[in-house]
């Protein structure tokens, strides 16, 4: 299932943890930080959940 996020929204969103840019990962239904932390934030019903407590941390 493909996430329906407007491109302008992705341009203005930033990682709440480190401020890095976010990229969409359609397969996992997540927004993944391209900055220093690498956190992955879930997208539920096409709404990004940008809460650090909800983020998946990258595998070491």
Automatic annotation (TrEMBL):
<protein>
    <recommendedName>
        <fullName>UPF0434 protein ACFQZM_12535</fullName>
    </recommendedName>
</protein>
<comment type="similarity">
    <text>Belongs to the UPF0434 family.</text>
</comment>
<dbReference type="Pfam" id="PF03966">
    <property type="entry name" value="Trm112p"/>
</dbReference>
<dbReference type="InterPro" id="IPR005651">
    <property type="entry name" value="Trm112-like"/>
</dbReference>
């Amino acid at each position: 299932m493909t996430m329906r996020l407007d491109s302008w929204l992705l341009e203005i969103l930033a990682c709440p943890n480190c401020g890095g840019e976010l990229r969409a990962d359609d397969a996992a239904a997540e927004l993944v930080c391209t900055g220093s932390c690498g956190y992955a934030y879930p997208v539920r019903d096409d709404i990004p959940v940008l809460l650090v407590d909800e983020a998946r941390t990258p595998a070491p």
